[in-house]
Amino acid sequence: MSEFMWLPLVLLPMIIFWLIKYYYDYWKRRGIPYVESHPLDLDWYKSAGIDYYAKIYRQLEGHKFGGFFSRFAPKLMIRDPELIKNVLIKDFDYFHDRGDTTFDENEPLTMNMFSAPGTLWRNLRTRLTPTFTSGKMKYMFNLVQECAEELVQAVDSHIQNDTTIDVKNYVTRYSIEVISSCAFGLKTYSIKDGHSRFAAMASKIFEGKLSARIVYLTRSVCPKLKEILRVPFIGKTTSEFFLKLTNDVVEHRKASNSSRNDFVQILINLQDDKKMGTIEDEFTLTDDLMSAQCFLFFVAGYDTSSMTISFALYELAANIEIQKKLQNEIDSFMEEHDDQVSYEMVHNMPYLHKVVSESLRKYSINGTLMRVCVKKYQIPGTEVYIDKGTEVFIPVSGLHTDERYFPDPERFLPERFEDRNPEFRDAYLPFGAGPRSCIGFRFALMSVKLALIYLLRNFNLELCTETRYPFEFAPLKIVTSVKHEIFLTFNKR
Ligand code: HEM
């Protein structure tokens, strides 16, 4: 036996170590400030986005941008509000894709506006923008209002026996009802019953099963793998449920020649309108694409809105003076309007708007915005180039908790939205910014504000012994959510 047999045993680990080090020195080699990392650093897996991106943001303190590693791959974080505006708005042509690796032409539901790249995204966004105008929101106002009334009834009957309420549970049921009603034209009775097939399917999408996490991870580390592995991102049952649901609703509407003021109707009209549905660039709003957009409205709208309402309710219970001030505003508006809530009224309540804005600041619903660089880009004012394919992150939760823009960031202070200077404005990104910002923000504000108006008009809220704070945020979710219940005491006013 050769005396050098041991050599590979020593050399191989050294080579592997060197290759890993070389890979993880990606940002160092490029002369860009960065956060040190290694393959065993699994912070991205263990922490919630709201905490994770704020931590990286703080680690890059003093730099306008910097590199980090997440999901075993190099990413770039842009910290400076001026540069962020360039990425999101001015130089949008370089960053029009989100780089969402869930997009898959073989999986109809993933072909939605959030995940779609390039031309498909542009086509969808252009066609669907008119769906979200104030005019269209007004049509849906009554549907959402009905849900807010049901929410009050459900809370009212709960507190007959027990004044302690898990607000997260109730407002999730409310949000499911709102979206199922406005996106699919369906009554699910989830507020009253607490259980519905729709709600069960919704929880399946978000329950973060290990298999879904593995698929998501492998796709984000190596997008090519999806062609080889062919494992669907959305489970078969969920996928079939939502595809059939939209098909049934569409067929029923067409067959009965009936119509309703909801998203599915707007999409049916869009499909029927030859000028809109099929234009020169041969974009056709197929049935599958239509289902994918309804599914997206549901996915994008239900957790985001319910968590926003839950956080606001918690803060109102924790800050009784703010709660009283908001109740006074609601009461005086109701008196002025003969106890009738209208779309205009909801949007003209200044203090309510500040309370919602502050909740969205303190609890960033998305810890980060994501973009992918689609062609080589020079960062303005520097000699640094971002390569095509680089994933770019905008650290919303970091900006929202930066003392420089929001003094005393831990404090819930709606008054900070009184006179917003431009610097403050640029650092505030709850709905993103630019052509790819949240298309549903008007709808979201309408449903969040209506729930708050109805609940505060009818109940006084207080913290109770079961209220858990600080919150423990759930890891690996796109939407910031709390792992546990949010208990509050409700008393009839
Ligand atoms: C409080 C509730 C909500 C919050 C905080 C929120 C936040 C966001 C954020 C941060 C983005 C990414 C923006 C960017 O990358 O610049 C986004 C995208 C999106 N949101 Fe929302 N959202 C909410 C509710 C809704 C609702 C109710 C809908 C639909 C009914 C909706 C539909 C969408 C869609 C379709 C996109 C993708 C837009 C595109 O890529 O063109 N969102 N949302």
TrEMBL record:
<dbReference type="Pfam" id="PF00067">
    <property type="entry name" value="p450"/>
</dbReference>
<dbReference type="InterPro" id="IPR002401">
    <property type="entry name" value="Cyt_P450_E_grp-I"/>
</dbReference>
<dbReference type="InterPro" id="IPR001128">
    <property type="entry name" value="Cyt_P450"/>
</dbReference>
<dbReference type="InterPro" id="IPR036396">
    <property type="entry name" value="Cyt_P450_sf"/>
</dbReference>
<dbReference type="GO" id="GO:0005506">
    <property type="term" value="F:iron ion binding"/>
</dbReference>
<dbReference type="GO" id="GO:0004497">
    <property type="term" value="F:monooxygenase activity"/>
</dbReference>
<keyword id="KW-0560">Oxidoreductase</keyword>
<dbReference type="GO" id="GO:0005789">
    <property type="term" value="C:endoplasmic reticulum membrane"/>
</dbReference>
<dbReference type="InterPro" id="IPR050476">
    <property type="entry name" value="Insect_CytP450_Detox"/>
</dbReference>
<keyword id="KW-0349">Heme</keyword>
<keyword id="KW-0472">Membrane</keyword>
<keyword id="KW-0492">Microsome</keyword>
<dbReference type="InterPro" id="IPR017972">
    <property type="entry name" value="Cyt_P450_CS"/>
</dbReference>
<dbReference type="GO" id="GO:0020037">
    <property type="term" value="F:heme binding"/>
</dbReference>
<feature type="transmembrane region" description="Helical">
    <location>
        <begin position="6"/>
        <end position="24"/>
    </location>
</feature>
<keyword id="KW-0408">Iron</keyword>
<keyword id="KW-1133">Transmembrane helix</keyword>
<keyword id="KW-0503">Monooxygenase</keyword>
<feature type="binding site" description="axial binding residue">
    <location>
        <position position="438"/>
    </location>
    <ligand>
        <name>heme</name>
    </ligand>
</feature>
<keyword id="KW-0812">Transmembrane</keyword>
<dbReference type="GO" id="GO:0016705">
    <property type="term" value="F:oxidoreductase activity, acting on paired donors, with incorporation or reduction of molecular oxygen"/>
</dbReference>
<protein>
    <submittedName>
        <fullName>Cytochrome P450 6PW3</fullName>
    </submittedName>
</protein>
<keyword id="KW-0256">Endoplasmic reticulum</keyword>
<comment type="similarity">
    <text>Belongs to the cytochrome P450 family.</text>
</comment>
<keyword id="KW-0479">Metal-binding</keyword>
